[in-house]
Amino acid sequence: MTLAMTLGMSIGVRRTLWMMAGELVGVALVAIAAVMGVASVMLNYPDAFAILKWLGGAYLAYIGVNMWRSKGKMAIIEGQQTDKSISNIALVSQGFVTAIANPKGWAFMISLLPPFISVDKAVAPQLFWLLAIIMLTESVSMLAYASGGKSLRMFLSRGDNIKLMNRIAGSLMIGVGFWLALG
């Protein structure tokens, strides 16, 4: 959610939708893995998961440092509405990596979803409806956060607060990076 808010602030809600698409695919894969038991494989090979977490966290922190310094593709530059130079693929990838490298997401899905699956009934329809509810909730939440980031940007852009805005967005991104790596 913080990533959606930060991107909403720095690149706008419309561009943030690309990150949201990647995030939703990642969340769906995590949910399916939790239901199908593949999550136990991740638990048996925690080193691979830890490496993925650290790489994802380092990448987000790097982006945050550049934003904080008012540099990089996601930094807000005075007079610029959104940066078109960051590719949609990069935004999708960022969302996907954030979702699959999030240990709290895995823990949530592993603990939440299996009790809702009845072994006496077909798994596919049950999984479909669980995923539909999760995807809808996740989409609405990320959109609300991205819109809040855009509103915060409009509020902070009055006057000469561009540097402050970059530092807030960058600090949030660095925080997400550390949270991802250490969580």
From TrEMBL:
The chain crosses the membrane at residues 21-43, 49-68, 127-144, 164-182. Keywords: Cell membrane, Membrane, Transmembrane, Transmembrane helix. It is a multi-pass membrane protein. InterPro entries: LeuE-type. It is found in: Cell membrane. Pfam families: LysE. This is Homoserine/homoserine lactone efflux protein. It comes from Shewanella japonica.
